[in-house]
Design goal:
By secondary structure, the protein is mostly beta strands. It has one helix and eleven strands; from the N terminus they run βββββββββαββ.
Length: 131
């Protein structure tokens, strides 16, 4: 059974860094596109990054570009989200999501930010940025 488990969340001070992990089981990570989303209280779930399993490209939302990096270690079935220069507005529950990898870079570019693109979701990890 396909499963995603996020970890690494916690309390961090403004300007600090955090690395989140998303461990996949029940499927072969390299055959899947992985997205990271976040949801703050009272707000919609927001896509922030994606790693294409077949196209090998990465995508970032403008709101976080330059501050976060998504990487994957297929051998460890793990995708990472490195977050730097964190701000109070980064406070949210962070989720990873997976979908069978598309060979089309243009399709992934068009759809990666949509929650409906992904078939599998983790339960999330809380990130709080506060002094």
């Amino acid at each position: 059974q396909e499963q995603l488990v996020e970890s690494g969340g916690g309390l961090v001070q403004p300007g600090g860094s955090l690395r989140l992990s998303c461990v996949a089981s029940g499927f072969t990570l390299e055959h899947y596109d992985i997205g990271w989303f976040r949801q703050a209280p009272g707000k919609e779930r927001e896509a922030i990054a994606c790693s294409g399993g077949r196209v090998g490209t990465t995508y970032y939302a403008d709101s976080v570009k330059g501050r976060i990096t998504i990487t994957r270690d297929n051998a460890k079935s793990t995708v990472y989200l490195q977050m730097n220069s964190m701000r109070p507005e980064d406070t949210a529950v962070y989720y990873c999501a997976a979908d069978q990898a598309t060979p089309s870079g243009s399709l992934l570019s068009a759809y990666w930010m949509r929650t409906t693109y992904y078939d599998y979701w983790g339960r999330g990890t809380q990130v709080t940025v506060s002094s």
